[in-house]
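User: I'm writing a tutorial on reading structure tokens. Could you give me a worked example: one chain, its sequence, then its tokens, then a sentence or two explaining what the tokens reveal?
Assistant: Sure. Here is the example chain.
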Amino acid sequence: MKKGKVTVIGAGFVGSTTAFALMQSSVVNEIVIIDINKDKAEGDALDMSHGVPFMKPLKVTAGDYADAAGSEVVIITAGANQKPNETRIDLLKKNAAIFRNIVGKLTEHITHDTVILVVTNPVDILTYLTYKISGFPYNKVIGSGTVLDTARFRHSLGEHVGVDARNIHAYIIGEHGDTEVAVWSTTTVGQIPMDDYCKSCSCCEGINKYEIYEKVKNAAYEIIQKKGATYYAVALAVKRIVECIMRDEHSILTVSSLLKGEYGIEDICISVPSIVGKDGVTKVLQLNLNEEEKAALTHSAKELKKHIAEII
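And here are its predicted structure tokens:
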């Protein structure tokens, strides 16, 4: 395994922006870009390489699946794009077929030392499909999950109460999509429960939880409607996950990974707070959810299982 090597499969909006974000990370020394459109991958690699003199030395190249060998992390962003008015689940059958091809070729060249990070939507289902096809240990196949949703949630709450989003502690869990769950019961500003903070401060008159949840849940649809795709924030979310893996940070992120009885859920990849390090997910944390949140998470898992049954 080559220290600091990352492969990005897919040179679309998300893949290219992710590669560019990773260039600016101190932990990445080599980036390989793979795409069915070889000219696009080569053009991106050349364009990014010209920017290397402005940062620490690193190597950016275009390649094929054999060039993924030795990567610490392989990031899969390839797939059909989500169109306006199309849900993530609508993408399922198109992208499942694409993934069977990609993962089959990829696993011929990488070992179980590599962490596979799935970003393509619907991410939870494709993470599960990748786990099944690859034969990799369950902790080594993860999805970007609700890492971005959680960031959107914290951003919205921070704006609402006038506090730096980095001091808002909150999670979106479940499906990265229409059944995702906002965990209000554990949300805090610093160490102060959100409800208590809103009652005691003069910054806001209460909090419309439904309005904020809907804003977070539908953020991607709004961006897609306005400009056709989302890629800046998701690229930064992926960069953060990669840093956690390559630095073996043991940081807590809401990545999508296989649950084995946690929260009463089994044999499904879904997002809950998890400790992330060099081996992928090293531990799944169990939040003290209230009854409404437990029911919503169970519903989210059931919906994902229903769709998985259509492709496996």
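What the tokens reveal: The chain has two domains: 5-143, 147-308. The chain has a mean pLDDT of 94.
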